[in-house]
Structures are given as structure tokens and as C-alpha cells.
Hints:
This protein is mainly α. It has helices spanning 3-25, 48-51, 69-97, 104-126, 131-157. Helices cover 61% and strands 0% of the residues.
Amino acid sequence: RWKPWVAGGFALLLVQVTLGGWVSTNYAALACMDFPKCHGAWVPEMDFHGGYSIIRALGELPSGEMISQPALTAIHWVHRNFAFVVFLYLGILAARLRAEPGLRGPATLMLALLGAQLLTGLTTIFFQWPLLIAVLHNGGAAGLTLAAVVLMVRLSTAGRPPAGGYDPNSVRV
């Protein structure tokens, strides 16, 4: 019963990791320096077309001009706000998965890493993206991905004969 929920969470996580990579690639981490608002507004001026055009040079708009602040803001704002969706979904899911003995470990790890991602994400805003915190934030994303993969593997092998690892019969699905 948990498999589609974990698969959905994994898909959301992959979208968020991709958005984070887009933030990093476009140097948009410092586009919004206040929280919870961005540029003093809940919905600031943004250029989604310029920010999310894939066929363009790095640091430029599709027109060839230097990437604009509204384009960088759009990139940052989407990553920041989608993070809340992922945080809530995975947080609720992981809390519920902790009741399953074979899933308790990776679910607990996921909850811890979600807290770390929230902390490092907010810290980057308040301390203007120190390199160490940026690296920790990237590492947290990798850790969340691994925890989600472990959950998917355990759910996929539940009820099968052991292949020389954990006991899949300990997972109640």
C-alpha cells in the first residue's frame, strides 16, 4: 500500500533536486535575500520564460542579454516554494512509514535529513550562501535521494525470498 506513495515522494524529490541544480547552475541562490518573503513580496516580480529557458547560454537570457534579476528570482522562488511541498509530503509520509518495522530506519533518516535541509536552506539565505552550508545542502539532497531509494527497494522486495541482505518479511506493506 505504501509503494505508490513512496514513488510519488521520490518523483517530487527528483523535481526538487533538479530545481536545486538549476538554482546552482544559474547562480540564483542569492536572488532572494529575505524570508519568508522575497524582495519584500510574497510573489515578487519574476521572469519565468527567461529563467527557465533551456536553450540559452549560461548567465544569459534567450535574447543574449545578461540574465536578469527577475529571471534569477523566478528560479530561486520556485525552488524555495516547491521545497515546502516536498517537505510536507515527505515529512508526513516518513512519519507514517516509521510505524513499519522494515521501513523505520530509512524513514527516520528521511525525517532527520528533511530537518537538515530546512536548516541549511534557511541558513543559506540568512548567511548569504556560505560554501560549507551549500555543500551540506547538496549532501542533504543526496542523502534524501538515497533514503527514498532504500524505501523503494525495501517496498519492491517485500514478500520475496531473501537474496542475502535484510529480511524482507520484516516489512509489512
